[in-house]
Amino acid sequence: MVQAILFLPLIGAVIAGLFGTKAFKQLGTDDEVYADHAHNAPSVEHSHDQHGYNGPPWPMYLTTGLLCIGAVLSWIIFFGFLQGGHDGEIELLPWITSGSLKAAWSIRLDALTAVMLVVVNTVSALVHVYSLGYMSHDESQPRFFAYLSLFTFAMLALVTANNLIQMFFGWEGVGLASYLLIGFWYTRESANAAAIKAFVVNRVGDFGFALGIFGVFMVYGSVEFPVIFAHAPDAVGKTIHFLGHDWDTLTTLCLLLFMGAMGKSAQFLLHTWLPDAMEGPTPVSALIHAATMVTAGVFLVARLSPLFELAPHAREVVTIVGAITAFFAATVGLVQNDIKRVIAYSTCSQLGYMFVAMGVGAYGVGIFHLFTHAFFKALLFLGAGSVIHAMSGEQDMRKMGGLGPYVRITQAVMLIGTFSLTGVGIPGIGGFAGFHSKDAIIEASYAGGSTFAFALLVIAALCTSFYSWRLAFMTFSGPTRADKEVLDHAHESPPVMLVPLYVLAAGAIIAGFAFQHWFMGEGQAEFWGAAIYRSPDNHILTQMESVPLLVKWSATIAMLAGLGLAWLFYIRDTSLPKALAAVNQPAYQFLLNKWYFDELYDFIFVRPAKWIGRVFWKGGDGAVIDGLGPDGVSAAISGVTAQAVKLQTGYVYHYAFAMLIGVAAIISWFSFGGIHP
Amino acid sequence: MSIFQQLGAAAALPEILLAIMAMVLLLEGVFVTAHTPNTIRWGAIASMVAVAGLVIWKSGSGSVEAFGGAFVADGFARLMKVLALLGGAVTLAMSGKYLARTRMDSEEYPVLIMLASVGMMVMISAGDLISLYVGLELQSLPLYVIAAINRDNAKSSEAGLKYFVLGALSSGMLLYGASLVYGFTGHTDFAGISAALAKTGATPGVVFGLVFIITGLAFKVSAVPFHMWTPDVYEGAPTPVTAFFAAAPKIAAIALFARVMVGPFAGVTHSWQQVVIFISIASMAFGAVAAIGQSNIKRLMAYSSIANMGFALVGLAAGTVEGVEGLIVYMLIYLATTLGTFACIMAMRRKGIYVEQISDLAGLSRNDKGLAFVLAMLMFSMAGIPPLAGFFGKLFVFLAAVKAGLYVLAVLGVVASVIGAYYYLRIVKLIYFDEAAEKFDGADMELAIVAYASLAFVLGFIVFAQPLVNLASAAAKSLF
Asked: What pTM was estimated for this model as a whole?
C-alpha cells in the first residue's frame, strides 16, 4: 500500500508531463480532435491559444485522481498507527553500492512517516483539486499538474527515506520541483529571479546538509538510519577534526545537518527566498511553501532525534535560531501589504516555532504543530488565492477592503484559518487546532528553560495575532479601496475551489483536540514508539504540565492583545497606522524592508560574487584560457602554416637537400646519441 | 622436377600472370588496330581483379617461399596485395571518362599501371634485399612515366621529372643502405640478416645501413622529411594518376616498410623505432600544419596523405603485433576513404573543364546534395570523428602505441589529429555554409559508384569492423 502511495504521484507526473503537454499535442495525435474547433472558429482558436487552455482535460484529472487515492491510503495507514500500528522497513531495490557505501531504495514506515504521509498527501490532493479551478484558464495546465505531482513524489521519497542518501534525493527533488513551480510563469522576469534565488539560497543549506551526510558516513560508516541510530551513542564525547579544529563530533554533525534544515525551512539568515517564492501560483505557495516542503527541515530534525538528543549544544542553536526566526518573521509580517507575503512571513515565523519545539526536545509537539499548521496555513493560502481570484489577480491589500459581502464563504474559512493561526481557545479546555500546538510550544520553551526563546515566542504570538487580524480586516472589512471595475467582477470561487477550503477548514478546527492525545498527550509514547527518540533525562513533556498559570495563559493574552490592537488600528481608527509609521519612520522602514536582509546579502555576497565572476570570465577565461588556449594556438598554427608552405619552393635541389639533411640528422642522432644493442 | 618446381615459382603465379597479361595487352595495343583504349583499360581492370581473386583463392593459408627465400607469400602479403590490386583497379575504372575528355586515353596507361602493380606485389612479397630493390624499381619506373603522361602539360612533365630525379636519389640511398647491411651481416636474405643480427646486435654499420634503407622506404610512403616531392607530383599529375598514387603504391610501400622493419631488423627494433617515431611525428605534424595553407584540393590531399602515413607509422613504431594490426586496419580505411575522396574530386567538373580549387566546392550542398554529403562524411571520417571509419583507424594505432608504452607519440598524434581536423572541417563548412559557387556538371556513374561505396564503408565500418579486424589480426600475426 505504501509503495502505491509513493509511486502513484510519480506515475501521474510522468504521464501528464510527457504525454499531456502541448509538445505532445503538436506531434499530431490530438490535432484531429481539435481541428474541428479550429476550423469553425479560427480567430477564437487563436486568441484561445494565448489566453486559455485548449488541450484535453485528462492530465489534470489523472494526476488529481491518483493523488486522492494516495491521500485516502495515507489516512488508512495513519489510523492504523493511531491504533498501535507496527513500524516497518521495506526495501524496494538496491540503489547505490560503492565500497562500504550502501544505500538502498527503501521505505521506512513509522508514526513519523505516517504523519508526514497524511500531511503531504492530504494537502497535495486538496491543492490538486483546488488547482482544477484556480488554474483553469492557464494554457499549460498539464505541465503545472505534472510538476505538482512530481513535487509530491519527491516529498514522499523524502519522508519515507530509510537512509540519508534517499532523503537527500527527495530533498533535492522537492528543491527542483519548487524551482520549477516558482518559475512556472517563466515569462515573468520576477518569477525567474525568484526561482533562481530559491534554488541558490537552498544550495547554501544543502552544502551543509551534504557535509553532514559525509560526516555521518565518516563517523558511522553507514548512511542507513537503523545503523546510525543504533550506534549514535558511540560518538558521544568524541571529537572530529574539521576546519583546523577539533570539534565535538555530534554537535558538528547535527549543526551541519541543521544547516540543511535552515535552508529548506527558510530559517533566519537563509529565509530570504521564501517571500520571493510567492511569485509562484498560489496553490504552489499553499502546498510547497507553507504545508509541506518548508517543513522538511523540521522533519529532518525529528527524524534524526537520536542524534540531536545526544547533542545538547546543537539543540540550543536550534532553539535560538527558531526563536529568532519566529520573532523576526512576525515583525516583518506586521507591515507587509502583499496578502501572500504576509502569509509567507507568517509561515516563516511558524516554522521558527516548530524548531524551538525541536530544540527543547519536544519533538512530538513540534511535529504536532507541523501537522496542524499544514491545515490552517494551506487554508489561509488557498483562501488568499480565492481572494486574489475574486480580485482578478490583485494581491495588494491596500487595494482591497470590504470584500466580505462579495466572498462570504472565503471570508468565513479565512476567519477560521485566522482563529487557528492566532490560537483561539481557552487554556485547559480547548480551542482551534493552532491553539493546541502553538501554545504547547510556548509552554515547552518555558519548560525547556529557555527564557529567551519563551519571550520571543510570546512577542511573536502577539505579532502573529496582529498581522493576521490586520490581514482579515484590511481584506474583508471596512470601506472598500478596490477599483470599481475590479469590484464589479468580484465573485465567489467555484465549488471545485471551495470544497478543498471546507476540508481544510474542518482540519483547522478539529485537528488540534482530535489528535492531541496521540501527538503529545498520554498516548504519545505509544504512538511515536521508536520513531522519535527521547533520552531518559528528557522530561520536557512532564515539565510542560507544571508551568505557571501565567505561562499557560501568556499565548492567549498575547493573542487577545494583538486582536485588540489590530481592531484599534484597522477598524476603529484607520488613520493610526499612518501616524505611527510617520512617527517611527526608521523602525517602519526597517520592518518594511525586511530588516534589510536582501540589501545586506546583495552587498556581502551577490556583488562580490558577480565581481569575482567577471574577473574570471574576462580575465581568466577570456584573456588567459582563450588567449593561450584556442585563440593563441590557432594563431600560432596559422603562423607555422605560413612558414611550412614557404618550405615548398618547387626547386628539386631544395627537395633533395631536405632529404639529405634528414638523413644526416638521423645519422648524427645515432652517432652522438649512441647505439644501444 | 622442372626448374619452376625447383624454384617454387608457383607461389609467384599471380605476379607472373599479371606480368604476362600486361605484355599481352601491350602487344594488343600495338598490333591490333581495331582496339579502343577502353578495351585495354577494361582488360587491365579484369586482369587485376582476376589476379586479386587468384591471390585469395590460390595461395591457401600459411607462408610459402619461392626463389630460395627471395619471395615470400604469407597472409600479410596476400591481404596487402589484394588491397593494392583493388586500389589500382578502382582508380583505373574511375579514370576512363577523365582520360577520354582530356585526350590522354593512350593504351600505355593501363599497361603501365599493371606493371607498377606487378612491382608492388613483388615489393610486398620481398624476402631479400635484392627482390626488395627489384620490386621497388619495377613499381617506380612506371610511376615516373605515368606522372608525366600528360606530356604536353608543363606541370605534368615537371611532376614526372621531379619524381624521377628524387626517386633516383632515394633509390641510391636505399641501395647504399642495402650494401652496408650486406657488408656488415654478410647476407641479403632477410632470414640471414635476422640471424646475423641476433648474434651481433646493433652495430654502427648495420644501423647506418638501416637508416639509409628507411630513407628509401620513407620516400616511397612520402614521410617527412622525404616527402617534398608529394605535393608537386600530386598537383602536377593528372587527377586519375594522383588518385592512383595516393592509393595503391602507398599500400605497397607501407607493407614493405613493415615487412623490412619487423622481419630482418626485428633484433634491432630499439634502433629503428626511434627513427620511425621521428618520421611519424614529423609527418603527422607537418602534414596537418601545411595542409591548412592549401587552396588546391589535390595539394591538400597530398599533405593529407603525408599526415595519414604519419598515423599509419604510429602503428609500425609500436613494433608489436597490435601495432601492425592497427597499421593494416588504418591502411584499409585510408584506401577506402582516399578512393572515395578522389572520386569526388574527379567529379568536380564545370562546363566540361575539370577544376581543382577548394573554393570550387563552396555551397556544394545546394547544388548536389549527394556529392556534398559523401564528401562531408569522408572529411569527417578523415578528421577522426566517431563513429565513422577514420576514428577507428586512429584508435587502433594509438591504442597499439599506448600499449607499447609510447605515450608521447600517442599524445602528439592526437594533437596533430586535432590540428588536422581543422582543414577537413573547413571543407565541410565550405560545402554547407558558404555562398554557392556555380554548379558542377554531375558525376559519371563510375565515380558515383565508388563514392557511394566509400560512403557505405565509412558509415558502416562500425558494423562490419570485427571481421576486417580479425583479417588484419591474422595478417599481422603471419609477419612475426
From this structure: 0.67
